[in-house]
Amino acid sequence: MQEKLKDLVARATEEAKNIKNEADYLNIKSKFLGKKSELSELMSSIKLMSTEDKKKFGPLFNKIKNEFEELFSKKLEEAENVNDKLTFDPTLPISEDHGSLHPVTIVGREVTNILKDMGFMIFTGPEMDNEYYNFEALNVPKTHPARDMQDTYWLDNGMLLRTQTSSVQNRAMKKYGAPLRVCAPGRCFRNEDLDASHENTFFQLEGMVIDENISISNLIYTMEGMLKEVFKKDIKVRLRPGFFPFTEPGFELDCSCTICDGKGCSTCKNSGWIELCPCGMIHPNVLEEGGIDSTKYSGFAFGLGLTRLAMMKYKINDIRVLNSGDLRHLEGFNVR
Ligand code: DAH
């Protein structure tokens, strides 16, 4: 018996040296201390021993058992210390396998930061909204034909998925009053047939400035300043008439082509201009509905398509990849 125990202790001590992680620890523990282990078998043979041997081996078995437990735990602890040191070694090279921001997120943050520097506050509204904020407060009553242009998803509870970030206009006016400089980036939805340039889910950024004596010149100046920062070069803008029930007058804003700087190329179809963002002077009805005195204050607003801007900036020619989760298209902008 003495010999057997000696041999067992020697083997366990040798094998304990191989404990490198918790799995090794559990395996060795089960091998040397488990119900079917040699030690357990030896221990169960105690009942067949003489009283004298019982007195001698009983405490010895227990001592060996405790020693094994201590030894295995100690070896695991040592291994974990080594592993920790390895994991936190600051000199190891950083893995190249990391995520990157979505192109729309990058562009959205860029534009919002620029507007923040220009004194705009950032405001957000809900994606699930009601008819009032999305339409009625924007001078689009139930029967208005303009509703046809923005078909959306209606929910069982009578609410809808907002079709435009303009839905924040009334909320911001009521909450902060005039004067006001606010921008609101966010997700919008429309019931669209999907193709390379139409998605049912896209991002816009609403901008709005209300103060005394705000005119179209302020709109042009602000847009030029913002686009210059976004594209990191001088950008010219021009306004064409556009109809939006919540503007008077309303415009389509074009910017000089960012590829050819206005000289004419295939992107701008040789016109030198790219259609960028609808905008206009806020309709007096909309100001009044927001609790703002339209005889004292005026304002302009714009709805910048962040999805469109990201596509322009990163030369993505199919809008559908942006929501696809296809990493081949979405990674590689290398911004963390
Ligand atoms: N909300 C409009 C749309 O999605 C865009 C728009 C037009 C926003 C004119 C404005 C604006 O703030 O003044 O079609």
What does this structure look like?
With 336 residues, the protein is of the alpha+beta class. It has helices at 2-16, 22-33, 38-44, 51-87, 103-117, 131-134, 169-176, 216-231, 284-289, 306-314, 327-330; strands at residues 121-122, 128-129, 160-161, 180-189, 201-211, 237-241, 247-256, 273-282, 298-305. The strands form 2 sheets. It has a 7-stranded mixed β-sheet, sandwiched between helices. A two-stranded antiparallel sheet has the order 2-3. β6 (237-241) and β7 (247-256) form a beta hairpin. It is elongated. It binds 3,4-dihydroxyphenylalanine (DAH). 3,4-dihydroxyphenylalanine (DAH) binds next to β7, β8 and β9. Residues 164, 166, 206, 244, 247, 250, 278-280, 301-303 line the site of 3,4-dihydroxyphenylalanine.
In short:
By secondary structure, the chain is an alpha+beta fold. It is built from eleven helices and nine strands.
Bulk shape: elongated
Which strand-content bin applies to the residues? 15-25%
Rg (C-alpha, Å):
35 Å
Give the tally of β-strands.
9
Average residue pLDDT: 92
Helix content: 25-40%
Q: What is the name of the CATH architecture of the largest domain? A: 2-Layer Sandwich
Order of helices and strands: HHHHHEEHEHEEHEEEHEHH
Side by side, the strands of the main sheet go 1-4-5-9-8-7-6
CATH third-level topology of the largest domain: BirA Bifunctional Protein, domain 2
| Secondary structure category | alpha+beta
Count of runs of 4 or more consecutive helical residues: 11
Low-pLDDT windows of residues: none
Span of the ends, CA to CA: 65 Å
CATH superfamily of the largest domain: Bira Bifunctional Protein, Domain 2
Biggest sheet layout: 7 strands, mixed
**Attached small molecules:** 3,4-dihydroxyphenylalanine
Q: How many structural domains are formed by the residues?
A: 2
* The first-level CATH class name of the largest domain: Alpha Beta
